[in-house]
What does this fold into?
Amino acid sequence: MPTNLPPEAQEAERRYREAKTTEEKIARLEEFIALIPKHKGTEHLVGDLRRKLSKLRTSPQGAKVVSRRDAAYRIEREGAGQVAVVGTTNVGKSALVRALTNAEPEVSDAPFTTWAPTPGMMPVENVQIQLIDTPPLSAEFVEPALMDLLRRVDLILLVVDVRTDPLQHLEEAVALLAQSRIVPLHRKDRYPEDRRWTFKPFLVLANKTDSEEWDEVYDIFRELLDEDWPMMPVSAETGRNLERLKHEVFQRLGVIRIYAKPPGKDPDFTAPFVIKKGSTVEDFAAAVHQDFLRDLKAARVWGSAQFDGQMVPRDYILQDGDVVELRV
It folds into this structure.
């Protein structure tokens, strides 16, 4: 091991080497890795240790320990959708999540700062969307539980650093995801039609586009791409385009907000029901309560209807912002 490790890391290494059981080795190796300074000089060391950690976890004795670690990636859904923020190291994922949500992931210039997924809630007008900061994608090691998490989310925000080879960041991240059979939805026609592939909508965020001075660099990056990626320039540092990003994420989730109006009362515009785009009055009734679906006799709609309060059938397709009164 390098002799220039700080004393606390050297002590953690000693405890790891003295560990007897697989469970102890896993716990102490995780501690050792966490205490190693993250910079260019330790990248190979960290990679070697993470591969060793992976072997320990996949051993029969490590199965129970792995299940506890996997629990960190079992994040309960909240809000209007679940969105993962991914990318290679040092592109600014954590800074973006911190700027957009109530979460406080560690932000550092050192690589591999994020070791476990960190969820936070992003407000978009009167709804909340769950963003999950994730450990960096790396060719040295890919956590299987992270890939399982990405298969469950509704949208993937892929972050690149517009100032330091964003094309490489994009290509590397996409290749690593493809190794786990996770690919962008817009590339679906390139892959065989079987159930082993997971297709997810992607939005590429060109981070650190702090001002208009960096727009030219962003435009050059776009021109270098061999396909039309859904993309937008943002800045966690200055907040540039973050409000626009919030609404873009909401639109790409494919959901709408519907407001319930009890008969004879005003609707509550602070607490909309969030349902899939293309949903009908019947779908909305089911979202409110199964009793409404069973007993529904009629419905009135304000917003997308031809006139306010129009009576509509059960198969009427609702639009974002509609107010609905269910009659049972």
About this structure: The chain is about 35% helix and 20% strand. The chain has a mean pLDDT of 87.
